Amino acid sequence: MDNNRNLPFNSFSSLTFFTGLCIGLTPVGQAVAANSKDQKPGDTLVVEAQAPSLYAPQKSADPKFSRPIADTTRTVTVISDQVLKDQGVNNLTDALKNVPGVGAFFAGENGSSSTGDAIYMRGADTSNSIYIDGVRDIGSVSRDTFNTEQVEVIKGPSGSDYGRSAPTGSINMISKQPRLDSGIDASASIGSAWFRRGTLDINEAIGETSAVRLNVMGEKTHDAGRDKVQNERYGVAPSVAFGLGTENRLYLNYLHVTQHNTPDGGIPTIGLPGYSAPNAATSALNGSGKVNTSNFYGTDSDYDDSTTDTATMRFEHDFNDTTTIRNTTRWSRVKQDYLMTAVMGGASNIGMPDPNNVGSWTWTRTPNTKDVSNKILTNQTNLTSKFYTGAVGHDISTGVEFTRETQTNYGVNAITAPPVNIYSPNSNINVGSLHRNGANANGQTDTFGIYAFDTLQITHDFELNGGIRLDNYHTEYDSSTACGGSGRGALTCPTGTPKGSPIKTVDTAKSGNLVNWKAGALYHLTEQGNIYVNYAISQQPPGGSNFALAQGGTGNSANRTDFKPQKAKTSEVGTKWELFDKRLLLTAALFRTDIENEVAENDDGTYSQYGKKRVEGYELSVAGNITPEWQVIGGYTQQKASIQEGANVAQDGSSALPYTPEHAFTLWTQYQATSDISVGAGARYVGSMHRGSDGAVGTPSYTEGYWVADAKLGYRINSNLDLQLNVYNLFDTDYVASINKSGYRYHPGEPRTFLLTANVHF
C-alpha cells in the first residue's frame, strides 16, 4: 500500500522532511541551500507546508469510507462548513445548490404538495436517501445546518453503503463534534423580509481528553417573495466527548429542532410559457397574463409544525494505529402535522355576474393534511483496518447494522376550502383545524444489514476496490379508512356504522433480502492524477421507505407486496486530479444508470413491473484553492434522462424523465483581496425540465432554464469580529423553482434578497 498517499496526522514531520527533500533537489531549493551557507551555526531553516483547503476536505467524515475522496471511484461532492458560512446558507436545500443538477424541482403530485427537502438527483426522488452521520434521517421536514460540519453527496447507487436507498445517490449530513480546544463562535443576521437569525457555537475542553460543545439556533422570517408565508425555527444541539486523543473515545449527542411555519401551496401556472386555456369557455385566460408571484392562495388556517428529537451515542476503540472499531446507537423521532391549501384544478367562470371578466374567475383549492410520527432506532458497528497479505495492501471497512423504523400516520377528518379568486386571492378565511378520526396507517420495517468493503493496493499505482452488502428486511403495514367519504377510494359505511368511523382496509406484511454491491479499479497516472472505473448495483423494495404497501398481490397499487425490488445499475469512468499541493481537486466522470423493475401503469389502469429508465451523461467539478487567497467550488453536468420502457412518459409525449435538467451548472468563488476584505460571487444555471404526465389539459409541460447570480462582501473589523453581506439573485431573475406533476401550480424562485451577518469569534 502507498502509505504516502494516506498519511496519518502523526506523520507530519515525515511529510515536511519529504517536502523539504524535494524542494532541495530543485534549482530554487539549491539557491536556498546556497544562501544558507551564510547562516550562522545553530540557525534554523523552517519549511512551511500549506494547510489543507477549507473548500475541499480530503476525506469523508463518515468512517465507513476510509479512502481519500481523490481515490474514491465515484462522483463525490463535499460541501464544507466554510462554504456554508461564506454563502450564508442555513438549510440543506440551499446547500445542495452547490451540486449541479440536484435540487427541489418537484412541487408534488396532483393536489398533494411536497414539503421539506424534496430533493431530486439524476432523475429520481432522493428524499428518502438523506442521512445524518450515516444513519437514515426520517421525515419530510426542512433540515437546518446550524449543527452541520459538512454535507457529502454521492452520486450513483448507494445501496452497498447504506442499504435500501434511492437509485441515483445519497446525501449525508455530518454533525459537529466536540474538540480539544476552547472557543466561541456566534452570528447574528438580519435580512430581507424581516429575516432574523442567530447562532451560537461554544466548544470547551475539559481537562486533557474531554470536551463539551453546544450549538444553538433561532430563526424567524417572512418569505421575501410570497405574501403571508413565514418560517420560524429553533434548535439546540449539546454534545460531550470523553477520551479524545486516546484509544477509547465516547461521544454523546442530542439534537432538538422545532419549527412553526406557514406552508406555501404554490401559485397557478396561468401565463407561463406552454400554458393554454383548457377549453373554449375559458379561452380569455390565454391573454390574461401571469398572476402576481407574491399571491398567497392558502388560508389563515394553514400551518406546518414539526419537532425533531435525536439522541446518539458513539463509542470508538483503537486496537492499534491501523485498526478501529466503532459502535453507534441512535434514537430519533420526527413529529409533523400540517394543513396546506394548494391550488388545484382548472379555472371556472360558472355563476359569475360577468363570465367574460377574467378578474372575477376562481380556481379550485385543495387542503393537504398530515399528522405523522416517524421513529428510528438503530445500532451500527463498523470496523476499519489496514494490513498486508504478502505484497498486497488492504484497506477494509466492514460492519453490521440493526434498524427499526416506524411510522404512524394519523387519520384526520376531511377539510374543504372554497374556491379562490385567480388574480386577487383572499386568504382571510378559516377552514378549521385537524381532528384525528382514528383511521390511522401504521408501518414498521426491521432491517438487519451486514457489509464489507476492501481496497487492494496491487502495485504502487494500481488499486482494486469492491464491496457487498446484504440486507434482510421485514415490513408490516396496516391502515384504516374513514367510511362515508366521497371521491376516489371512498368506503361505504357498513349498516349501523356511523359516518366517519375507521374501517381497516389493509393489513399486510412483506419480507425480503437485498444484495447490493460495487466494484472499481483505479490507476495513478502521476502522483497528482488518476483514472478509474466503477460499477454498482443498488436495490430498494416495493414502497421504498414510505411504508405504502398494498394488499398481497391482489391490490391495484404501484406498491404491491408481490413486486420485485427496484434495481439500479450504474457504470462510471472518470479521472481526478489534485493540484497545488493537494489543495485543488478537479474531477471528470462519464456515467450511466439503468433502472429496471420500475412500476408503470397499464392502459387499463392496473400496474406492472415493465418500466425501465436510463440516466446518462458526464459531470465536471472543481473544489479547493487556486491560490492561497482564491477559493472555488463548482461543477457542470449534462445528463440525458429517458424512459426506456413504460407508459409514464413526460406530458409532452417524449420519453424524457421529468424533473431532470439536461444541463446544470454551479460555481461559487471567493477571493481574499486584503487581510481584512474578502469578495465572493456565484452563478448557477438550471436547464429546462419536463414535468410528469397526467390528465391535465392546457398546463405547461415544461419549465424554462434560468441563470441566478449571488454575491458576497466580507470585512474583518478585528480578530474577534467580522461583517458579511450576502446578496442573492443579484439581477432579480424571475424563474420557476419547481412545478407539480399536473402543471396546475408552481413555486416561483426567490427574488433579490440580502443578508447582513455579524460573526463573533473568541
TrEMBL record:
Topology in membrane: Multi-pass membrane protein
Motif position, TonB box: 44-50
Keywords in alphabetical order: Cell outer membrane, Ion transport, Iron, Iron transport, Membrane, Receptor, Signal, TonB box, Transmembrane, Transmembrane beta strand, Transport
InterPro entries, per the entry: Beta-barrel_TonB, Beta-barrel_TonB_sf, Plug_dom, Plug_dom_sf, TonB-dep_rcpt-like, TonB_box_CS, TonB_sidphr_rcpt
Domain TonB-dependent receptor plug stretches: 69-169
Matching Pfam families: Plug, TonB_dep_Rec_b-barrel
TonB-dependent receptor-like beta-barrel domain span: 271-730
Subcellular location: Cell outer membrane
Chief localisation class: membrane
Family: Belongs to the TonB-dependent receptor family.
Protein name: Catecholate siderophore receptor Fiu
Species lineage: Bacteria, Pseudomonadati, Pseudomonadota, Gammaproteobacteria, Enterobacterales
